[in-house]
Specification:
Blueprint: E1 30-36, E2 41-46, H1 49-57, E3 61-67, H2 72-82, H3 86-93, E4 100-103, E5 108-117, E6 123-132, E7 136-141, H4 149-157, H5 167-203, H6 206-237, H7 246-311, H8 327-348
Parallel strand pairs: 3-7
Antiparallel strand pairs: 1-2, 1-3, 4-5, 5-6, 6-7
Helix pairs in contact: 1-2, 5-6, 5-7, 6-7, 7-8
């Protein structure tokens, strides 16, 4: 899980100021151009302002995918070529954005969260920003990943309808890939919950409590990332943007259904995580009660024995049993009888 992102370094700056807010990464900017139509496909890396402007004037559908958003100069160059609003570029570099959709007339700006896993199996979230125009699509990502590789292969090999569709179909393919990754994340969380259920039932430890709290934080973060995405897909599916044609709304409706399913699953997993915490607390309480019951029984058994030991430990000269030859064995036998009798009584009452 990512740490809290602070916006304090933007305090006092005018709107539209490009300041990267988010996790600092060592990756450099990598910009990939894919231009295609029904018959041709060009896939190459670009890096100069002339390449950006040439991509804008190219025929067919142009997809520019930028990985790494910490450097402001490439963003400014792309913004100048495609006439992007400064607030759009600012939101691209601010990785703490809430999933949203904004219509700027000549293009639609979409922000959402992508989910993946790190080497330790933890959930990693990154911001994906999409700019969808009439014949171009710009995607901005925080780091390199292979989530869009199947889409690129479909474009290269002309599989399916992607080469025949417009930017709305390409945008749908990208959104669908992100939602599919949500399902992968949910499956991993479900597996973690199943393991925690077995661990809580068998032998809960303080480390188990830490796992439960981590799981609950992950579920809260997932809900925060997915729940606003439902409104974005709903706006696109209702046809509020002219760039998404009627034919693409059927696919958007399918993504909307998947999003609803994910949100319902998240609510169920949150309830299960809360139940795990209750089970853990009950298990710890029962274990404490068992320990206290055993200690209480032991203390109760030794109370009369302590009384007898204290009675015969008094330093009085005239005590009837002091001069008796069998006094010591008799007192030991009396103490053993009292102890065994109390133990049998406790077992009969099922206190042991």
């Amino acid at each position: 899980m990512s740490k809290h992102i602070k916006r304090s370094k933007k305090a006092g700056l005018p709107p539209g100021t490009l300041v990267h807010i988010g996790e600092k990464r060592s990756e450099k900017n990598r910009i990939r151009l894919i231009n295609y139509d029904d018959t041709n496909c060009i896939d190459k890396e670009i890096g100069t302002i002339a390449d950006y402007c040439a991509a804008k004037t190219a025929t067919g559908i142009t997809w520019i995918n930028m990985e790494g958003i910490q450097q402001t100069e490439p963003l400014l160059q792309i913004g100048d070529c495609f006439k992007l609003h400064p607030l759009v570029l600012e939101d691209v570099m601010n990785t703490d954005q809430r999933p949203k959709m904004e219509d700027f007339g000549d293009y639609v700006f979409i922000v959402l969260k992508m989910l993946s896993f790190d080497q330790q199996g933890g959930i990693v979230a990154e911001q994906l920003s999409l700019v969808v125009g009439q014949d171009f699509l710009l995607s901005f990502r925080e780091r390199e990943s292979d989530i869009f590789n199947p889409i690129i292969e479909r474009i290269r090999n002309a599989k399916g309808l992607i080469r025949k569709g417009g930017t709305d179909y390409l945008a749908h393919a990208l959104l669908d890939a992100v939602v599919d990754q949500y399902f992968v994340t949910l499956e991993k969380v479900e597996e973690d919950i199943d393991q925690l259920e077995e661990e809580v039932s068998a032998d809960a430890t303080p480390k188990t409590l830490q796992k439960i709290h981590k799981l609950r934080r992950e579920l809260i973060f997932l809900r925060k990332a997915v729940l606003p995405f439902r409104s974005v897909i709903s706006s696109l599916e209702r046809g509020e943007s002219p760039f998404f044609k009627q034919a693409s709304r059927v696919y958007l409706r399918d993504i909307y259904d998947h999003t609803i399913h994910i949100i319902d699953s998240l609510e169920t997993l949150r309830d299960l995580a809360t139940g795990l915490l209750d089970i853990y607390l009950s298990s710890v309480s029962n274990r404490m009660n068992s320990v206290m019951r055993v200690l209480t029984v032991i203390a109760t058994i030794f109370m009369p024995l302590t009384f007898l030991a204290g009675l015969y430990g008094m330093n009085f000269k005239y005590m009837p049993e002091l001069e008796w030859r069998w006094g010591y064995p008799a007192v030991l036998l009396l103490m053993a009888t009292v102890g065994v009798s109390m133990q049998l009584y406790f077992r009969k009452k099922k206190w042991l």
